[in-house]
Design a protein that fits this description.
The protein is an all-alpha fold. The chain contains 4 helices and no strands. The radius of gyration is 17 Å and the shape is globular.
């Protein structure tokens, strides 16, 4: 495989993100939640530390969803037939997304709770 320059690498990464955004309903949901959380952060005037925690949380969920999609595509490339190991791999990756989403909900309560309650 030919070695890519930095511009080509960033271009491939952007194409990959757009692919996930266009093909995965859940990525759209996560991105909408991220925009809502960001807007709420501006409205409530959260602190710099809270912004840092919010950014880490948002990007953790988006990264998990992207990795989940990559794993699903790779498994689909290897086999189109049902296989229990393929199912286990896909379920484990989806579980990672679920864990990151649960963390995001917990972080939302921690960050926004004192402003809203």
């Amino acid at each position: 495989m030919k070695r890519k320059n930095l511009k080509e690498s960033f271009s491939c990464a952007l194409v990959g993100f757009v692919l996930v955004l266009n093909s995965e309903r859940n990525m759209k949901i996560h991105l909408a939640a991220a925009f809502l959380a960001t807007a709420l952060g501006f409205i409530l005037g959260i602190s710099r530390v809270e912004w840092g925690l919010l950014c880490i949380t948002i990007f953790m969920v988006l990264t998990a969803e992207t990795a989940n999609t990559a794993l699903e595509k790779a498994v689909d490339l290897v086999t189109a037939e049902y296989h229990p190991l393929a199912r286990s791999a896909k379920n484990a990756a989806a579980g990672a997304v679920l864990l990151s989403a649960i963390n995001a909900i917990i972080m939302a309560f921690i960050i926004f709770g004192r402003y809203l309650f």
